[in-house]
Amino acid sequence: MIKVFFLIVCFFIQFNSFSQGNLQFNQVIRVNNTAQTVPGGKVWKVETYMQSNTHISEWVEYPNCNFPDRQHPFLINSKPYYQINGSPGHGSSGIMMAVGNLFPLWLKSGEIVQTTCPDNFLSIIEYNIVP
Questions:
Q1: Which of 7, 109, 110, 119 is 20 to 30 A off residue 92, Cα-Cα?
Q2: Tens digit of pLDDT for each residue in 9-63?
Q3: What is the pLDDT of residues 60-119, one digit of tens each?
Q4: What domain range includes position 48?
């Protein structure tokens, strides 16, 4: 009797469960200061953020790109995010920084991403969501 009940429960779960889909590699994308939107049916995996002519500094200059030795954020849905790998500190502009903004970073369909300076870029892998 227990076996029959267990088989009925398993059968019911099998037909009522669903998956979100599998990921299939599509292409590698490089995003700079031109805003790009994650297309429908796809997800983006942001692998890294490269900032041109930069050295380690806790100074932040945003949105001015005339100071290449300062940190410039990238934008997700118009909100600034900083790549921070050092110790927590206090920037000269009064912005508190914390450790832990590490990649990869996943973006879902409809999210908008860009850098704040034209020489900086995000390296992204695009995946198709396959049912």
A1: 119
A2: 555 555 555 556 799 999 999 999 999 999 999 999 999 988 876 544 445 555 5
A3: 555 567 666 667 889 999 998 877 655 445 555 555 555 556 789 999 999 999 998 888
A4: 21-130
CATH number at residue 44: 2.60.120
Q: DSSP state, 34?
A: S
Identity of the amino acid at 4: V
Tokens 């599998």 locate to 22
User: Is residue 41 assigned to a domain?
Assistant: yes
Residue with structure tokens 């508190």? 96
CA-based angle 24:34:95, to the nearest 5? 100
Q: Give 81 or 1, the one with higher predicted confidence.
A: 81
- Is 5 part of any domain? no
Query: How far is residue 130's CA from residue 19's CA, in Å, rounded to a whole number?
Result: 10
